[in-house]
């Protein structure tokens, strides 16, 4: 099999597997316990916290561990707005956010908050002045993702935050950075964000482990109640092995980001050039330059995306048509519709996403299989 779906999840790194295995064998204690077993587990957690913080330019005290990126997004949007409801009731999101953000915003609307969903142009890059233009005195939170999970476009987070804060210094800014760490350099303090969500499994770590950066002194209300772990913001027994693995993966991702993106970018460009030669009417979705190195999202006119995926799978190639969280959905991608792609064309979308383990052989396999795959898909359309 040739795996070209790294944006959905990544293979667990050997270094991560080793540290997690060691923790499962030797540090099974509850990190909230005061005895020696608990203290050793707590040391593992805090080491993981230090590593994640270092990878994103944060202080360890600003890291709240969660069960994944979705939970981190939910905690940011719901926790901030519920805490600050007395200061305003307006929330801003963009139309091509991950459903963890969009569905949280829809939930807030049902609780009486006013939600503005900003349009996104064909480039798939959000303009800072558009975001700032939507801010008003009642705006308490803005959420703009750092890297779009489907089309891979990179957002000017630092400029967006500056524009928002210039208009309303008290407005908080959240970014879903799940697709950012490991794909672009991440520095949450340089960006100026108040919240940022991350997930371990996007960078060679385990599934079911994530983190929310919460800037020091930024208020938030917990959405999961219980034992008061993670400074009272996220109750629940901590996933010690998962956090240890996350820490190692984050450290490696930050260290290798420049070398990785240069190599993966060359593979991605070679793949796109080959696709253009084999399928000349293929359409690239989003800006070609302002995207992470491993992402290639395209549409094939006259072919059904799900059919192409099944045919690719039969040829030993794993790809996707968009977010894995929306797998099985009959509607075309909300991201593609948000950037102006027609419904008919969006139904023929493919996302090839490369990562640390990707090779030239993976690219060759796609280019060898794709002409027949497209031809068969078009014949049955």
What can you see in these coordinates?
- The protein is an alpha/beta fold and 381 residues long.
- The protein folds into two domains: 2-9 and 257-380, Alpha-Beta Complex (Aspartate Aminotransferase, domain 1), CATH 3.90.1150.10; 14-252, Type I PLP-dependent aspartate aminotransferase-like (Major domain) (Aspartate Aminotransferase, domain 2).
- Helices cover 43% and strands 13% of the residues.
- The protein has twelve helices and twelve strands.
- The chain has helices spanning 14-26, 36-56, 69-83, 99-110, 128-134, 157-167, 188-191, 240-278, 305-314, 334-338, 343-346, 360-380; strands spanning 2-3, 63-66, 90-94, 114-118, 139-143, 172-176, 195-199, 210-214, 283-284, 295-299, 317-318, 349-353.
- A seven-stranded mixed beta sheet has the order 2-8-7-6-5-3-4, sandwiched between helices. It has a three-stranded antiparallel beta sheet with strand order 9-10-12. Strands 1-11 form a two-stranded parallel sheet.
- The chain is globular and about 65 Å long.
- The model has no long low-confidence stretch (mean pLDDT 96).
């Amino acid at each position: 099999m040739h795996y070209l779906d790294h944006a959905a999840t990544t293979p667990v790194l050997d270094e991560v597997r080793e540290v997690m295995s060691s923790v499962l064998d030797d540090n099974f204690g509850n990190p909230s316990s005061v005895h020696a077993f608990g203290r050793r587990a707590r040391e593992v957690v805090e080491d993981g916290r230090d590593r994640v913080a270092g990878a994103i330019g944060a202080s360890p005290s600003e890291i709240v561990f969660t069960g994944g990126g979705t939970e981190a997004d939910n905690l940011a949007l719901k926790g901030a707005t519920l805490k600050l409801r007395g200061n305003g009731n307006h929330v801003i999101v963009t139309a091509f956010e991950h459903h963890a953000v969009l569905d949280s915003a829809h939930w807030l609307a049902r609780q009486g908050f006013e939600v503005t969903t900003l349009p996104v142009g064909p480039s798939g890059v959000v303009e800072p002045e558009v975001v700032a233009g939507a801010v008003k005195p009642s705006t308490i939170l803005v959420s703009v993702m750092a890297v779009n999970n489907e089309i891979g476009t990179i957002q000017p987070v630092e400029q967006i935050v500056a524009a928002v804060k210039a208009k309303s210094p008290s407005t908080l800014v959240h970014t879903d950075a799940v697709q950012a760490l490991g794909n672009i350099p991440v520095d949450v303090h340089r960006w100026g964000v108040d919240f940022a969500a991350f997930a371990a499994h996007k960078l060679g770590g385990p599934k079911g482990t994530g983190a929310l950066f919460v800037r020091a002194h930024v208020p938030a209300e917990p959405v999961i109640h219980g034992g008061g772990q993670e400074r009272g913001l996220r109750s629940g027994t901590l996933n010690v092995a998962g956090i240890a693995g996350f820490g190692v993966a984050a450290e490696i991702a930050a260290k290798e980001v420049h070398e990785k993106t240069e190599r993966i970018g060359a593979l991605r460009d070679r793949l796109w050039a080959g696709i253009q030669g084999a399928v000349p009417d293929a359409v690239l979705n989003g800006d070609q330059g302002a995207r992470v190195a491993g992402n290639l999202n395209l549409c094939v006119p006259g072919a059904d995306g799900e059919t192409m995926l099944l045919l690719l799978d039969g040829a030993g190639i794993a790809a996707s048509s968009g977010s894995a969280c929306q797998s099985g959905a009959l509607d075309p991608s909300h991201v593609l519709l948000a950037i102006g792609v027609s419904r008919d064309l969006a139904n023929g979308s493919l996302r090839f996403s490369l990562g640390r383990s990707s090779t030239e052989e993976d690219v060759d396999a796609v280019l060898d299989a794709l002409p027949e795959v497209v031809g068969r898909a078009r014949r049955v359309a």
